[in-house]
Amino acid sequence: MSYPLHTIAFAIAERIEKKIPAMKGRVTVWDDTLTSAFSARLANLRGSHILVKLEDEKNTSKTKAALYHGAYTITYFSSRLLTANEATTRDSVMQALKDHIHGWWPENVPSNGVVWINTKAISHESAKVGEKHLAASVMTLDAPRIPS
After folding, report:
1. Residue 46 sits in a domain of what CATH number?
2. Which comes out higher in pLDDT, residue 45 or 146?
3. I need a labelling partner for 83 at 20 to 30 A (CA). Which of 43, 116, 126, 136 fits?
């Protein structure tokens, strides 16, 4: 039985909303078909928003055996930082994301007990959406191969 890697992305989004109540309703799973709608939503952003995106996937190995490996990003968008309090909030949200995602595995995706989400680097960038400039903190993570 195989599970698409998007299932993991939706599980990550659900966990974020559950573990960080302030982000409830502010998490979106990226879908290429929603690009323009999401860009319009970001252009009118008030407060903050989290985007979960499957960046890279590998579904089969050279031997054609099932191999599900996904690289993801979690991006925290907010208005440009103006105060030390906003910077502290941004850092604490990114740390909370790392604390709640690293080492976790979605219950609805089978594993043999040794599979987990591995969080990697956090970078701080600037993003331009239309005419609006936003602050963006990006966490990279990956999901190891799902055992068959």
Report:
1. 3.30.70.1700
2. 45
3. 43
CA distance linking residue 74 with residue 3, whole number of Å: 20
Number of helical H runs and strand E runs in the chain: 3, 5
**H helices within the chain, ranges in order?**
5-19, 35-43, 84-101
Residue 128 maps to a domain: yes
- Domain encompassing residue 76: 5-143
Give pLDDT tens digits for 68-92: 567 889 988 887 666 677 777 888 9
- Answer yes or no: is pLDDT of 1 > 60: no
Report yes or no on 148 lying in a domain. no
Q: What is the pLDDT of residues 13-53, one digit of tens each?
A: 999 999 999 899 889 887 654 555 666 666 666 778 888 88
Residue 91: both structure tokens together: 């850092």
Q: How many domains does the chain divide into?
A: 1
